[in-house]
Each structure stands twice: as structure tokens, then as C-alpha cells.
Amino acid sequence: MTREPGNLSRSVVWATLLAVTLLHVYPQHATAEEAPAEEAPPASPEAAPAELTGEETVEALFTAPGGVPAEPTDADAAVDAVKASMARVEEQEAAGIGSSYVIDFGDTFDWVRMVSGEWLKGEMKRMRDDNLEFDSDKLDMLNIDFADVTHVHSPVVNTYVFDDRISATGRAVITPEKIIVETDEGTKTFPRSELESIVAGGEREKDWWSMKLRFGLTLNKGNTDQLTYDINFNTRREDKMTLLNLNYNTSFGRTGGVQNVNRHLGEEDFKVFLSSRWFVTPLFGQLFNDRFQNIRFRATPAAGAGIHIIDVPKAKWDFQTGVGYQYLNYRDVTALAAGTSNPQHDAFVPFYTYGDFDITGDIDLTVSWLTNLVVTTIGNTNHTGKADLAIELTSVLDLDIAFLYLRTESPAPPPPPPAGAPLPDPIKQNDYQLVVGISLELG
Hints:
The protein is mainly beta and 443 residues long. Helix content is 15%, strand content 53%. It has helices at residues 5-38, 48-51, 54-60, 75-95; strands at 63-64, 68-69, 110-114, 119-128, 131-136, 140-145, 149-162, 167-174, 178-183, 186-191, 195-200, 209-220, 226-238, 242-255, 258-273, 278-290, 295-299, 302-312, 315-330, 344-358, 363-374, 382-392, 397-408, 430-442. The longest helix is centred in the N-terminal third of the chain and has 34 residues, at 5-38.
């Protein structure tokens, strides 16, 4: 069958129009279907925290009652979170903080900011005498001058002690001017200048105690066989109102197998603080025994009052005095002057001074001097001088260099020798002892 020319032309025209129409419509339809594939995919959950600011991180944290995160903040965001938390507190501090204010903490760890701008993460152990003990996982135990700390972020419960023995227990933040503590009775604000100490934990009995044990040894072998050892044990209890300090020192020594040192010295000092400067001492004194001074037992209980003469971040100096009673019992009375009673009972006036100097963060020097002026028998007046240089080796071990000086104005005569033996040397007024040892410190 032959197609006519007119029909062929019309077919070509219709085919052309259909092709143009399809080419025009299909790209639009395809574009409409493919558009969603060109949109940027949502950010993955892992990438989101890196894009948040510190303040947004704080907002995003799931917090438990009290404003403390349920889990430690991610290390990359923790500093920003803590900075944002402190910024919020300082902003509210300027407007006024009421008892119902809840601190929004940025992490579960303690953080301190140094004057240099650095932030340290770890755990506050305590602050006493303007020395902050801070345990860092990376830097170990640090002793920081509290004057070098501008901010503290502490979401754990501690006890903060202020002037006039006022205290507050709870979570807290510290700014350059204020200390803000969330207590059971509500949030309280205190001037930073009135802070005296920080005790880790709440008002639990074990939090008030600390102990230190020192052991020193001297050994010579050869032409001279000599062995001398010294043990010193100190225990201390300090709360917001009182300070109890107990110390015991004993020394034993032998030369050529013959004992030539046998001494025991116990000391007690109990203070009740009336203010940041004044205190009373209901009981302080010594118990003393020295075989080679012919003293079986000497007790010097006393009571009095005292004052903090110097109280600055790196230096403390106290002085106290009062009245006391001295009981003195000699080991051997054979050589005593006729009419000398044994035991002897006397009244005395104590003069006691104590200094503590923080030379560096790791080196501490303590010195003390006690004179018991026996007014009823002046020859029984006695003195005790001590110096202790402690060099921190680890968080619990110290190298100690200790000096002890003992003096009695009129020592008793020595016991008479056995028949045929030479007369013993008179007992000297002064005794000196220098000990180098290792000490263990707990609490």
C-alpha cells in the first residue's frame, strides 16, 4: 500500500510534536523526584556534641536532682561545660542568689581555675592554712596555695568552715569574691575572705582526723657498734570549733651493746577557738620519762589561752600561756640533797609558741618552743625546742629532718655507781637529737 504524501507529512509533524513534549516534561519530572537526594543528610549523632558550645552542652546534659550531671561530662566538652556553669553562677551572683537557687554544675568532678587561667580536674581533699590539697589523676596529689585559685567548681559534698567557726555543708562553687553552698537548709552565700578551711565530705567523725608516723634509724658497725632508733607518732583532730593534737616520741639507743638512750615524750594540746584570732586551751602539757636523766615520770598539765600572732597564706605563728601543775618523780633518790622530797609538786607558768611555714608546695617547716617556768622550785624549770622540716615525696610519704632540744635548769644527780665502779659523770642540762627519717601521713 502506497502512503500519500500529505499523510506522511502530517505523521512527521505529529511525531516531532510528541518528541518535543516528552523531552520537555520528563526532565522536570525527574528533577522533582531526585531533589530530596540532593539535600544535605542530617548530622550523625556522634558529630553533634563537637558542634555544641559549652553552654549548649550544659543545656543538653541530662541532670539529676540538684543540678549535677548523672554521668561525667565528655572530656572534650567538660571544660566548656564547667566554664558555662561558672558563668551562669557569676551572672546570678551579680543579680543576687536566694536560698532556693540551684547550681547547674557542668561535671561530676571537682575543677579549680588557677590565676594563670588553667583549669585542673580532680578531687579536693581538704584546704587548711590556705593550702589546698587537690588530687589529680594525671598530676597526682598537688599542694596549691589557695590564693592562686580564682574559681572552684565542686559538685561533691564538703564542709566549708568560716570565721567565728560558722560552717556550711553541701555542694558549692567559689568565685573570686563569694562562696556559694547548697545546704539542706537552702543555698547560702559567704564572703570568700572569711573562709578558714574545707573538709572533704560532710560532718562525719572520720573526716576530722589525720595521723603521721615517722621512723628514723642510726646504725654504726665496726670499730663502734651503735644502734639508735626513733619513733614519732602524731594524731590530730580538727573540726570547726576545736583542735586536738596528740604527739608521742620515743628514742632507744645502744653503744657496744650497752643501752645509753631511753626516753619517752608525750604531748597534748587541746584548743577551743573563740574567733579567727583568739582561742582557749583547757588542757595542754607533757608526760616525760628519761632513764638517763634519772626521771621516772614528769607530768606538766596546764590550762590557758592563746592568740594567732601571724595568720597569712604561707606562715602561721601562735602563742599561748596559762598556769600549770608539775609532778616530778625521780628514779633514784640516793644522791639527792638531804631533805629533797620525792615526788615533788610545783606550780609553773608555761610559755609556748608554735610556727608553721610553707617554704614551697612540697616543703614545710614547723618550729616550736615550750618553757615551763617553775615558780615554786626554779631549778625544776624545763624547756623543749623542736624543728621539723618535711619534704613531700609522694601523697602519703615525707622525708623528715627533725631536731629536738631538751633542757632542765638543775638536773638531778645520777644514781651512785655499784661498789668499785667509777663515779658517773654529772647529768648535763642539755640534750640534743637530730633525726632523719621517713614518715607516713594519713588523712
